[in-house]
Automatic annotation (TrEMBL):
GO molecular function: alpha,alpha-trehalase activity
Record-given protein name: Trehalase
Gene Ontology BP annotations: trehalose catabolic process
Record keyword Oxidoreductase present: no
EC number(s) per entry: 3.2.1.28
Keywords: Glycosidase, Hydrolase
């Protein structure tokens, strides 16, 4: 059977880019950085003509431009992965490729009313963490193209609506009896995932409940996939088993942090584009979300934001890296006492290990738990630590040390395996991560993007 994808050479790829990583003095590290840069063509694909001509015969969704797959089993464009791919492409002096990839996501948004989990038809019933406004911001900062921003802004308003209306948006009672709106992951399906059909049916069999209960579980499984954290004890009522998933009952701290940043970005875009009424609307929405998160999710004794569980108080227990993502998006102003306390909490949490930041303190056999260290979590929390340090008018030793630990992990694995992995073991620098539904994957789009960004920002010389 003919593939629905064709290999593609990015138009702006240069195997020896000018003035690449001049701050790196170590020759072996510089060679590694160049090797990462040279992986982009290996991951670049375009949709085959057969898909464009007969889309009904394929699960791959037509796209106007080329894109970058994560690697190995992942053979399509994914939503939130793309943010770190775009950052890496910009480091690699490939702004046209970065813009092309973002325009693919905008195309999917315009075609389907939201950005799907990935560019397959079976992903249309769910999305992924909403980072598209952040990607648009990266492209605008790189190219200063107001026409691009205007076209993106119009599409982004639909993406914002998708995340801020029922069933994803939930009305909650806030301080003093006021009503506030926060969002959750909620996939539009009650069926097993087509790409993991047997696994989902087997999980439902463990539940042993009615058809209605099985359908609810299938929705919670797909909603966990929508979160990007598939799977984690964050979503499990008993903290152990997939059959106890309750994803749609969870109001996640990180999702609402992403939406806070989405609102902040939209207010800034509206200001640039001369749309004062929309600027005010999005500014007000971001402040309302900040207030609601601080009132309902901020855990005073832990100094971080915890997920809410519907119909249950207080917020969820457990130590997860997601509780610190609001620090990255600015829910706590970087110069505030709250931000300093949150960073101190991260340092004392037990998550910071020799080989990076662990996902949680629970070893459950799920890939978004325990000592698995994921590139996007490292990147967000390193940048958060750096922002707190800058606001205090000092270089952040926390950000630099976290970046160094992560680069050492990736570099050690590269020297051993000559591969970049989807995730790593935070307790054993240089070892790939484990657990989950499939073996650890190599490639790897977001890992390469994060490493290139950190190498540029910190100029690592071991």
């Amino acid at each position: 059977m003919r593939s629905d994808l064709d290999d593609h050479m990015p138009q702006d790829f240069n195997s020896d880019p000018c003035n690449f990583m001049p701050e790196i003095e170590d020759e072996e590290v510089k060679a590694w950085a160049l090797a990462l840069h040279c992986l982009w063509p290996q991951l670049c694909r375009k949709v085959a003509d057969s898909v464009q001509e007969q889309p009904e015969r394929h699960t791959l969704l037509p796209l106007p431009g080329y894109f970058f797959i994560p690697g190995q089993r992942f053979r399509e464009l994914y939503y939130w992965d793309t943010y770190w791919v775009v950052k890496g492409l910009l480091v690699s002096q490939m702004p046209a490729s970065a813009e092309t990839v973002v325009k693919n996501l905008l195309h999917l948004l315009q075609e389907h009313g939201h950005v799907p989990n990935g560019s397959r038809s079976y992903y249309l019933n769910r999305s992924q963490p909403p980072l598209l406004s952040s990607m648009v911001s990266l492209i605008y900062e790189a190219k200063r193209d107001t026409l691009f921003l205007l076209e993106a802004f119009e599409a982004l308003q639909q993406e914002y609506k998708y995340w801020n209306q029922p069933p994803k948006a939930v009305r909650l009672v806030g301080p003093n009896g006021s009503t506030v709106s926060l969002s959750r992951y909620y996939a539009n399906t009650t069926q097993p995932r087509p790409e993991s059909y047997r696994e989902d049916v087997a999980t439902a069999a463990l539940l042993g409940g009615s058809k209605t209960e099985a359908e609810g579980l299938f929705r919670d499984i797909a909603s966990a996939a929508e979160s990007g954290w598939d799977f984690s004890s964050r979503w499990m009522a008993d903290g152990r088993s997939l059959a106890s998933l309750q994803t749609t009952r969870v109001i996640p701290a990180d999702l609402n942090a992403f939406l806070f940043k989405f609102e902040f970005d939209m207010a800034r875009f509206a200001e640039i584009l001369g749309k004062p009424s929309l600027q005010e609307m999005y500014s007000s929405a971001s402040e309302s979300r900040r207030s609601a998160m601080n009132a309902l999710m901020w855990h005073e004794s832990s100094a971080c934001w915890k997920d809410l569980i519907l119909d249950r108080q207080p917020p969820a227990t457990g130590v997860f890296a997601s509780s610190y993502i609001p620090l990255w998006t600015g829910v706590a102003a970087p110069g505030s006492e709250q931000a300093t306390r949150c960073l101190n909490s991260l340092q004392a949490s037990g998550l910071m290990q020799r080989g990076g930041i662990a996902t949680s303190l629970s070893e459950t056999g799920q890939q978004w738990d325990g000592r698995n260290a994921w590139p996007p979590l490292q990147a967000m929390l390193i940048e958060a630590a750096e922002a707190v340090g800058r606001a205090q008018m000092r270089a952040s030793p926390d950000g630099r040390l976290l970046a160094q630990a992560w680069l050492e992990t990736c570099f050690a694995a590269w020297r051993k395996h000559r591969q970049m992995f989807e995730k790593y073991d935070a307790s054993k620098p240089g070892d790939p991560g484990g657990d989950g539904e499939y073996p650890v994957q190599a490639g790897f789009g977001w890992t390469n993007g994060v490493a290139l960004s950190l190498l540029q920002d910190y100029g690592w010389n071991p």
